[in-house]
Structure to design on (482 residues):
């Protein structure tokens, strides 16, 4: 940080930071905004002490990159302590790594992802204040509305887009590489709702090793790639696709999803999608063994429950439309009142996330200006860095390292990294049967399998395509007179 700014002075006021977050429609990295956050000291050893032996769930996957994404349905899971995770990731004797001892750390990665801080630290609420999203213009938002991610090298999240909100991500320890694609690239990413998870639209493409024979349109996708380092905060705008991978031995991130007005219509779309997916997939023969429900979804909900949720979502949308009209009629020079709710991306039944009221963030920013005019108003510079599209010849595996605070680690050789990623699965020699879940080696999951007939999933990919669902939602809302 420039010394002229003075000790403790941040480059953006909370009001300006919120304006950027709510108006910017492309990814960007905030630098020098969180230097005084206690959460920057949340390394694994500290968190281990705070958890005091409590176990959390880790997802395990192969470090090799296949032509098929490693969806969560294709991973193994263990319940372990952070001490055991640290021992395993550091190569200590297996007697110290507990359930991780079944997995060779040179072949596998582990990821404790989507851990709601309010839940795992429910007995230590004072720790919530270590995270201060109020610096970004969201007063009252702390660790209670945030999610924790702890991974080893190679840990990754399959390419997907989030149906709700935009995303602020703080990197605490280690580095992560983000591969982002704009909403306009959706058709190039072959969207699918299998495995099904509310609020996540997955891509069929393995971004790190794309199968261009079966997914040729992916060549047209425009990757924005950035390596996020400790102390930096990434803004992921609404509906931007992202594939995220840990590139250091241990990585820790904290994020918070910021609710948007558009989420009300998105909840209607998600309710329609849930109803269709559950109805069609539940009618299949269970013996087919299709793991269509993501582990984050507890069960396939009944048609009656799904219909109830759809009606709740429609009612919430109508209520907020009326509220919006009323606010516009009685607007003052100060603009609309801000209302924030709990951050919930994965589970619609999280406390405070029910779609029965108008609780989303409202704002008075003008989105009628052109993209060029909008970007001219954004104060890009050393404290706010654009994540620019990669040259076509670099593909999605190139990366831009953002420098700030002198905290950034030296960038690794990208070519060497890619070479490690693209080792073939057949080169692995399994040393322990417990390393590989049976379904992970199912050859039927490969896109290369010849098909003589269309499957239920083929039908669903068309039926619940985001563009189709958006049209259905609008037609449905028209029936209500909105």
């Amino acid at each position: 940080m420039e010394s002229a700014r003075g000790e403790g002075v941040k480059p953006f006021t909370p009001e300006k930071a919120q304006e950027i977050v709510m108006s910017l429609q492309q990814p960007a990295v905030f630098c020098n905004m969180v230097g005084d956050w206690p959460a920057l000291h949340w390394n694994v050893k500290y968190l281990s002490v705070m958890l005091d032996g409590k176990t959390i769930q880790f997802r395990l996957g192969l470090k090799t990159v296949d032509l098929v994404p490693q969806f969560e349905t294709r991973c193994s899971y263990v319940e372990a302590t952070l001490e055991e995770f640290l021992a395993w990731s550091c190569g200590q004797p297996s007697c110290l790594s507990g359930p991780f001892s079944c997995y060779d750390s040179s072949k596998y990665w582990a990821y404790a992802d989507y851990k709601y801080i309010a839940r795992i630290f429910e007995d230590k609420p004072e720790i919530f204040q270590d995270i201060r999203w109020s610096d970004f213009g969201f007063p009252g938002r702390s660790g209670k509305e945030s999610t924790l991610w702890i991974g080893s090298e190679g840990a990754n999240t399959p390419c997907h887009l989030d149906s709700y909100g935009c995303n602020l991500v703080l990197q605490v320890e280690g580095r992560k590489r983000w591969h982002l694609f704009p909403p306009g690239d959706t058709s190039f990413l072959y969207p699918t709702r299998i495995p099904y998870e509310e609020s996540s639209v997955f891509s069929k493409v393995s971004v790190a090793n794309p199968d261009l024979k079966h997914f040729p349109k992916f060549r047209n996708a425009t990757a924005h790639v950035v390596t996020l380092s400790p102390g930096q905060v990434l803004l992921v705008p609404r509906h931007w696709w992202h594939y995220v991978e840990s590139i250091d031995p241990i990585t820790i991130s904290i994020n918070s999803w910021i609710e948007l007005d558009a989420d009300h219509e998105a909840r209607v779309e998600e309710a329609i999608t849930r109803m269709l997916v559950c109805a069609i997939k539940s009618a299949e023969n269970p013996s087919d063994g299709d793991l269509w429900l993501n582990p984050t979804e507890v069960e396939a909900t009944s048609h009656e429950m799904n219909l109830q949720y759809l009606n709740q979502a429609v009612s919430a949308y109508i209520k907020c439309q009326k509220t919006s009209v009323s606010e516009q009629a009685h607007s003052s020079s100060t603009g609309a009142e801000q209302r924030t709710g709990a951050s919930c991306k994965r589970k619609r039944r999280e406390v405070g996330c029910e779609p029965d009221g108008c609780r989303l963030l409202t704002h008075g920013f003008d989105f009628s200006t052109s993209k060029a005019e909008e970007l001219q108003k954004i104060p890009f510079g050393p404290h706010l860095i654009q994540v620019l599209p990669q040259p076509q010849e670099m593909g999605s595996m190139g990366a831009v390292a953002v420098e700030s605070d002198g905290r950034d680690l030296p960038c690794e050789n990208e070519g060497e990294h890619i070479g490690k990623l693209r080792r073939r699965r057949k080169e692995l020699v399994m040393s322990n049967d417990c390393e590989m879940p049976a379904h992970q080696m199912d050859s039927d999951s490969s896109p290369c399998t010849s098909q003589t007939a269309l499957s239920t999933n083929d039908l669903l990919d068309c039926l619940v395509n985001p563009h189709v669902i958006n049209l259905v939602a609008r037609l449905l809302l028209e029936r209500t007179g909105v």
About this structure: The longest strand covers residues 108-116.
